[in-house]
Amino acid sequence: MFFPIEVCWFLKTQNSMAFSGTKANAQVRLPAEVNRILFVRNLPFKISSEEMYDLFGKYGPIRQVRLGNSNDTRGTAFVVYEDIFDAKAACDHLSGFNIMGRYLIVLYFNPTKQTKKLDLAAKEAEINEMKSKYGMHD
Q1: Which of 73, 45, 48, 49 is CA-nearest to residue 62?
Q2: Average pLDDT for 19-48
Q3: How many CB atoms within 10 Å of residue 26?
Q4: DSSP states along 59-108
Q5: pLDDT (tens digit, 9 = 90+) per residue, 72-95?
């Protein structure tokens, strides 16, 4: 289904603008990278999800906390807020916060970075397959 250019522009601006029910946030336009999902790095390995809820819950209601539990994801977490303004406040205030001797790195989740890594791995596999098919070696 195709939309006229004006409708696409309207939908794009509505998706990039965040509106809240409060008077202070009624017409605030946030940067494009701001979203409700935060990616937290450099967490202490011993931190629990209850402690994460306590720490990040000070800035607003949290929908979900996902702590990394495998060797390559330990020390990371995803925090999903109900409201985008709460996520922005948490990111602004907790980035660089010292907890258990570690300084937190709080970023907005960017799904395009994840897919780029997958695309890169697929391209590398395709190149290696072509090299072996045509007898080329490094």
Answers
A1: 49
A2: 78
A3: 9
A4: GS-EEEEEE--STTTTT-EEEEESSHHHHHHHHHHHTT-EETTEE-EEEE
A5: 899 999 999 999 999 999 999 999
What is the pTM for the complete model shown?
0.65
Handedness of CA 106, 111, 112, 115 (dihedral sign): positive
In angstroms, the CA 36 to CA 80 distance is: 6
User: Model confidence over 99-127: pLDDT tens digits?
Assistant: 999 999 999 998 776 666 667 778 888 88
Q: How many residues does the chain have?
A: 138
Give Dmax over CA atoms of the chain in angstroms. 67
- DSSP-assigned letter for residue 58: G
Q: Distance (Å, rounded) from C-alpha 127 to C-alpha 50? A: 45
